[in-house]
C-alpha cells in the first residue's frame, strides 16, 4: 500500500482530472476534499461513496482511499497536519472545536457531507476564498486556516444528528461522537444527561462503555479532555484562564489539577 508523506503544515491543491492519477493510498496528514464539478465514486476504507458537484469529504491519516471518475472532475484538496492544528496560531478556539470533533468522528470520514442549500453556497464561497489565497500559501497561511475553521463549523452543523433510537442507543460510534462533541460542556457528560440522550439509564451506560472499550467512561472522558488541554498548552497560544473557560472548568487551578 502506497503511503504519501507531507512535511509542510498546509498545502492547497486544485486540479481537473478525467482519470484518477493515484493508486489506492494512505497518508500522514488530513485532507478536506471538495469536488467542485464532476461525478464518480470515492472509495474510503473499502466503502464506495458516489460524489457529485459540491460534495466535501474529510480523510484522516492512515485511511485508504482513491477515486473512480465518471465525468471530468475538478478537485480542491486542503491538506494539513496535526502539527498545524495544535501549534498554529489559529485565532479561533471555537472553530478548532468543530474541526477536532469532525476529525474524531469516524462517521464523517465514511461519507460525503450533505449541506443544505444555504450552507452549500457558503461553502462554495469559502473554497473560492481559499483558492484566491493559495498562490502565496506561506504569507496567507493564517487567513487560509481561518477559512478552514469556518468551513469545519458549516460541516459540523450539517452532520446527521446523533439522535438516540432503539437501534442506535447502544451504538458505540454514536456514543464516541457524543463524547467528542460535548467534551467542552461538562454538564452534558454527566451520566444522567447522557443516559437520557441515549434512551437508557445511568446504571447501564457506564458498564456498557467499560464492557466495549476496556476503560471506564469517566477515565475516557478525563483522558480525552487531558489530551486536548495538553495540545492547547503546548501550542503556547492559550493561557490557563482561556483553557479553563473553554472547557467549562472552574478556574486555572482546575486545569492544573487535571494535568497533574
From TrEMBL:
Presence of keyword DNA-binding: yes
Superkingdom of origin organism: Bacteria
GO MF, one example: DNA-binding transcription factor activity
Keywords: DNA-binding
InterPro entries: AraC-bd, HTH-like, HTH_AraC, RmlC-like_jellyroll
Limits of the HTH araC/xylS-type domain: 173-260
Keyword Cell wall biogenesis/degradation: no
Full protein name: AraC-like DNA-binding protein
Organism: Mucilaginibacter frigoritolerans
